[in-house]
Design brief:
- The protein has 769 residues and is α+β, with helices and mostly antiparallel strands.
- The protein folds into four domains: 166 residues, DNA Polymerase, Chain A, domain 1 (2-Layer Sandwich), CATH 3.30.342.10; 175 residues, Ribonuclease H-like superfamily/Ribonuclease H (Nucleotidyltransferase, domain 5), CATH 3.30.420.10; 146 residues, B family DNA polymerase, palm domain (Palm domain of DNA polymerase); 135 residues, B family DNA polymerase, thumb domain (Topoisomerase I, Chain A, domain 4), CATH 1.10.132.60.
- Helix content is 36%, strand content 21%.
- It is built from 21 helices and 26 strands.
- The protein has a seven-stranded antiparallel sheet with strand order 17-19-20-18-21-22-23. It has a five-stranded antiparallel sheet with strand order 3-2-1-8-9. Strands 12-11-10-13-16 form a five-stranded mixed sheet.
- Helix 8 packs across helix 11 and helix 8 packs across helix 12.
- The radius of gyration is 30 Å and the shape is globular.
Length: 769
């Protein structure tokens, strides 16, 4: 049955949540200017398109007429992004969006998966609605309300940077069970639920029957009516657990956390394990609320990296509903922006990638597929080194040279003057591609935010702008990666190679110009140069960056002048330099580190703090000579942390190590820590999936019985005792990563921390003095 809108004329407010019903309508939630939260409905019937390289008009009519569709007709559309001419395609309109996968499969089967191509079928209905209406999440709009339809007047723009967000109401949800551990299975009864509101009020529901606790929680959510509900593990456990307990207590229909009265269902959804850049990841299934936004802090990349304001920026810029933007990978949200641009330009979005890689000889592959350029770092410590960076180098090159799937090796400009270095592939000069248009928008907006960050005195606004530009940075980074991704609709392997070729060419030109100015290249990697000139001041480096910007027509920035910087060798091969392992201190006191323990996600806080404090002790040095004299101060830090550990002053939570499980526990051939922890959790009834992180503490690292070597964080109790010997080993290893080049290996540092003064150690300490 069709829903009707309330009797209203016009309202103003922010577009908060959008999701489809199954009866040809779109549910729209609006946060009004006066603070009301109103649900409206709009007539919306999704459409997808069927094309073919040959004319099969009668066959298509016959096939589709037998399927449960609302209507169909032939229309003229742009189908091939490499061809600007239009083609006749079949437009199919459906009422129930859930039938689209079935219809697509039937059409493809009838053409034996070769005859027909499908377009616009894999775009989510809520996003398609935003695209076609020219809207975006949290847009400020004026809505003319009719009985079954809405018409919008957009009072906002996705390009603006000083937009206003609605006055959100927030809540946090936590729970514990009746067992000594937190809930690990759905069969454990609920102990208590804590609901925290944005005014600081916290309500703990811990009395009465389990049935009462669940109903009272639903009442609290209904009473305080939050827009955003935060959880830690809501997707993976909390929401399915609560739904299961509601079902056990026979109150499923009354346990409602959504704003539109939809009960929380105990769905048997499964998460997804996937590979990305050689790493295994796990994404928990989405637990959706309707009319509210649920953000699981354990299941969101954008929120974790750029905070709530970064999430809002991504949702607005990429036209992805807030609940989906919080869980999607940055590549998925960026693809939404590309899809919108393509539809805006009049192109249909193919179900499968259409532009393949061109044929190359072995020599061309050797020449072109080389990645970025690297100058190997000169190992050791260096004084007075300046760092110059290309600002968003690859996105800027893609924008400058118009690199997109439909522009590289285009059919309309074979004599184009714009060609890839080395490979010589031509680029279209007549039309701008989808990818460069998207980058133009993202780069321009990010530069505006970065300008505001520098100009704004208000610390709150400063942080907001910084989070927004940080979110857009991920869009720019991902645009380049997706250019070579096999499933990217607007990706091109040839273009990916071309960007790398332009990047190598630009870095080489920049280094040549720098050397003619008397600067010496100490290190260079892809888009950064570390240069040294004894008499150069910060102003000289700024002047060089400005000259390079003008000559190369690419933005470069002077990142700072180092008092000293140490390039660290490979741990496995001490004579081999590593491009991304260094630490240093700039003249303004800023510490910069790459590739050492403080940058590793599996480093326990105890080791992280110790290594950072060592660098802080060394940071007082103004040059390399003073650095060497400060080494005893850094070693004293190691000694102090050892004492804290042996005196049990380090909380066991600071010794937690985080590792990602890359495969099923029974698939490991060795008893590595991840496997042992996975077994422990499985034995206790926890779910363990490849791609998930496990946290543990070393308890007896050398124990012959592997299960006693480590203990999962979830199983830690008052009797758990850490393996101090193992953690001291990690401490000495982290210290040697900083000082090994100066003669202080792990063994020497261990001796010093233990109070021993061997002749060799005394010599090293005297040299440092």
């Amino acid at each position: 049955m069709l829903q009707q809108n309330p009797v209203l004329d016009k309202i103003k407010g922010w577009l908060f949540d959008v999701y489809p019903s199954t009866d040809g309508q779109m549910n729209v939630w609006v946060i009004c200017e006066n603070g009301q939260r109103i649900k409206l409905v709009d007539t919306f019937k999704p459409r997808f398109y069927v094309s073919s390289k040959k004319a099969f008009t009668n066959e298509l009519k016959s096939i589709v007429s037998k399927l449960p569709v609302n209507s169909f007709r032939f229309v003229s559309k742009h189908v091939d992004p490499t061809n600007w001419s239009k083609s006749m395609v079949l437009e199919v309109t459906v009422t129930n969006y859930q039938k689209i996968p079935f219809l697509v499969r039937k059409i493809l089967e009838s053409g034996k998966y070769l005859r027909y191509q499908i377009h616009n079928s894999d775009v989510a209905p809520s996003q398609l609605y935003l695209y076609e209406r020219g809207l975006f999440p949290l847009a400020f709009v004026e809505i003319n309300v009719e009985k079954y339809a809405l018409s919008y007047t957009l009072l906002d723009s996705v390009e603006v940077v000083n937009y206003t967000v609605p006055p959100f109401r927030f809540a946090g949800l936590q729970l514990t069970s009746n067992t000594k551990h937190k809930p690990s299975t759905y069969n454990e009864p609920l102990d208590e639920i804590a609901v925290t509101f944005d005014d600081g009020k916290k309500v703990v529901v811990d009395s009465g029957t389990e049935r009462y606790k669940l109903l009272h929680t639903a009442y609290l959510i209904r009473k305080f009516d939050p827009d955003i509900i935060f959880t830690t593990g809501g997707d993976s456990f909390i929401f399915p657990y609560l739904a299961k307990r509601a079902k056990v207590n026979e109150i499923s229909n009354n346990f409602i956390l959504s704003r539109d009265k939809t009960p929380l269902i105990a769905e048997s959804k499964k998460g997804t394990t996937y590979m990305s850049y050689g790493q295994t990841y796990y994404r928990s299934p989405t637990r959706r609320l309707y009319g509210r936004i649920h953000i699981d802090e354990n299941n969101t990349f954008v929120f974790r990296e750029s905070g709530f304001h970064g999430l809002i920026e991504i949702a607005r810029s990429c036209r992805v509903p807030l609940h989906k933007a919080s869980r999607s990978s940055i590549g998925t949200t960026m693809s939404s922006l590309q899809n919108y641009q393509a539809l805006k330009d009049g192109f249909l979005i193919a179900r499968n990638k259409q532009v393949g890689e061109s044929f190359k000889s072995a020599y061309q592959l050797l020449l072109g597929d080389r990645g970025g350029f690297v100058y190997e770092p000169k190992m050791g410590i260096h004084d007075h080194v300046g760092e110059i960076d290309f600002s968003s180098m690859y996105p800027s090159l893609m924008k400058k040279y118009n690199i997109s799937a439909e522009t590289v090796l285009c059919g309309c400009c074979p004599d184009s003057c714009v060609k890839f270095p080395e490979l010589g592939f031509h680029i279209c000069e007549k039309k701008q591609g989808v990818v460069p248009k998207v980058l133009d928008f993202a780069v321009t907006k990010r530069l505006a935010y970065k300008k505001l960050v520098k100009q704004t005195q208000d610390q709150v606004l400063h942080d907001v702008y910084d989070k927004r530009q940080s979110a857009l940075k991920w869009i720019l980074v991902t645009c380049f990666g997706y250019l070579g991704y096999r499933n990217s609709k607007f990706g091109t392997v040839d273009g990916h190679m071309g960007v790398c070729a332009f990047g190598r060419d630009s870095l080489l030109k920049a280094s040549c110009v720098a050397e003619t100015k008397g600067f010496k290249v100490i290190h260079g990697i892809v888009d950064s140069l570390w240069l040294k000139k004894e008499t150069a001041s910060s102003e000289d480096y700024v002047e060089l960056a400005e000259e390079l910007t003008e000559q190369l027509d690419l933005p470069l920035n002077f990142s700072g002048l180092y008092k000293w910087i140490v390039f660290v060798p490979s741990k496995a091969h001490p004579r081999v330099p590593v491009p991304n392992r260094y630490y240093g201190v700039k003249t303004d006191g800023t510490i910069k580190v790459r590739g050492i323990d403080t940058r590793r996600r599996d480093t326990p806080k105890f080791v992280y703090d110790a290594q950072l404090d060592m660098i802080r002790a060394l940071s007082c040095a103004e040059n390399s000579k003073e650095f060497v004299k400060k080494i005893p101060e850094a070693l004293k830090v190691v000694k102090a942390y050892k004492k804290k550990l042996l005196d049990h002053e380090i909380p066991i939570w600071d010794l937690i190590i985080t590792k990602r499980i890359s495969k099923k526990t029974n698939a490991y051939s060795q008893n590595v820590s991840q496997r042992i922890v996975g077994k422990q959790l499985l034995n206790e009834g926890y779910e363990v999936h490849p791609g998930k992180n496990v946290k543990y503490v070393f308890t007896d690292a050398q124990n012959k019985k592997s299960l006693y070597r480590v203990k999962a964080k979830e199983l830690i109790d008052e009797q758990t005792s850490p393996d101090t010997k193992k953690y001291l080993s990690l401490l000495y290893s982290a210290a040697s990563n900083l000082l090994d080049q100066f003669g202080f290996c792990s063994h020497a540092i261990s001796e010093y921390a233990s109070g021993y003064q061997t002749p060799k150690l005394e010599i090293l300490l005297k040299k440092s003095d």
